[in-house]
Amino acid sequence: MSDVDVLERLERILRSDEDVPPERAAELAVMLDEPPIQDVVRLVERSTATRAAVVLRLLSRRRSIEVFDTLDAAHQADLIDALGDRAVYEFFSELDPDDRVSLLDELPAEIAERFLRNLDDSERDITGVVLGYPRGSIGRRMSPEVPHIYEDLTVDETLQELRRVADDVETIYTLPIIARDHRLVGVTSLRDLFTADGSAEVSGLMDKPVFAAAHDDAEETARWFVPLDMLAMPIVDESGRLLGMLTFDDAADIIEEADSEDTARSGAHEPLQQPYLSTPLLKIVRSRIVWLLVLAVSALLTVQVLDTFEDTLAAAVVLSLFIPLLTGTGGNTGNQAATTVTRALALGDVRPRDVGAVAWREVRVGMLLGALLGSLGFLLATLVYGLDIGIVIGSTLFGVCTMSATVGGIMPIVAKKVGADPAVFSNPFISTLSDATGLIIYFLIAKAVLGL
């Protein structure tokens, strides 16, 4: 039986009976040992908390810990009640300190405190180091488990130390070199150590370190670190003392989480933070309802504009036919600009102080887009409804595109300046604002051209 067939059969069994009978448990446990670990993870991610807990209990201890470790922190938190204390404590103690803290952030305070109490003293102290840094900082995502390689050690002494601590540290491939007061002085690699003379001091092998401070923003740090293609880099305190290491995979996770959050918010909902099929229905509803209420209230601005220009519409009913075209064009133009600038902010291509340059660039882009679309709108509207209506539509498209592109470009930067997430001020609000402002432009031009 292929791995796909095994997983499909397991999924059918779990859907038909979440309480697996004892006589079937042994059979399912054997079946779960057959597929690759990534397929078992996929099965867990497609299952409810109760079904996922069944899978984790039936897996061997090693595989169940591996699967639990790969899940998102929010998904792990959902499994807590279904798994029971004994299994949860075991999984929790096996997590790396930074992953442990991510899970604690998703749990109620009393449960998090209980979990910490069940750790042994050394693991509790290491976890406490990471917990001591604010959410959103890179210190919160580092691993404090690093080898202490002093600059005056020889290569042989260093290799001996690495053999001693290899099972207890996050990585041994990129190695920070420290002075006796724990200040970071350089980095070296395991490759360099293996190829060096055993009696040489590691200070002769080290390179200038690339590092980050523990209080630096996690997303910004991860975004400049990942393109460097380094396996890991040191994290230091304000005095330059080594605190931990940020690995490439942890940095990639930070970027993935940030991109998922931006994508969700630009689509007018909060990120689920776990696989869709394993997310409880009420959690999905909560992620959407607040945004829908906010946007529904803000859309009243568009209604108010239409009410203000009711007489204009009554005098030239044909104007109402073009409202969907104009509002749609304005919203799409603004969304394009906002999405582009939000992405540029995330990548560091644009900084808040570049607001003037961005505004001037988007004014010109909007004018060019408006000229192209306005010319087409003028031509078609003139052919069907006459020259006056053609002038109104062409002029409005030019004005709406220019305005929407400019506003869409600067709004994410304004959000960044005031400390808000640029994605929050992206597509949903830009669309609403463009609708209302575009209608004002439309009716003012119509009144001027048509003499209403």
UniProtKB/TrEMBL annotation:
PROSITE patterns from the UniProt entry: CBS
Keyword set includes Transcription: no
One MF term in the entry's GO annotations: metal ion binding
Keywords, sorted A to Z: CBS domain, Cell membrane, Magnesium, Membrane, Metal-binding, Transmembrane, Transmembrane helix, Transport
A Pfam match: MgtE_N
Annotated GO CC locations: plasma membrane
Function, in words: Acts as a magnesium transporter.
UniProt family annotation: Belongs to the SLC41A transporter family.
Protein name: Magnesium transporter MgtE
Organism: Corynebacterium hylobatis
